[in-house]
Design a protein that fits this description.
The chain has one helix and three strands; from the N terminus they run E-H-E-E. By secondary structure, the protein is α+β, with helices and mostly antiparallel strands. It is elongated, with a radius of gyration of 16 Å.
Amino acid sequence: MSKYLVSVTEVYRVDSENEVEDIIEAAKDVSTAKPPKYNAEYKERKQKGEVVDAWWKVTVTNYFNDEKEPMSSMSVSYDKGSAF
C-alpha cells in the first residue's frame, strides 16, 4: 500500500504584513504540484472597546502531489521544536 502526501495546511500568527509576505513567498517555493492557496486576515482583540492586541492570521495550503495522479511519496515529520 502506498501513501502520497497531497497537501498540508498551515496556520500562522504573525505581527506584520512583511511576515505575511515572507510566508507566502516561502510557500511558493515549497508547493510543487500546483501553486499554494493562501489567505491573510488582520485580527484584533478588543477589551472594553479598546484594541489590546492585533495580529495577522495566515493560512497556507501547500500541494505536493496531484490527488488523482500522485508522482512521489513524501512524509512530514513533526517534533516538539520550532517549525523553522
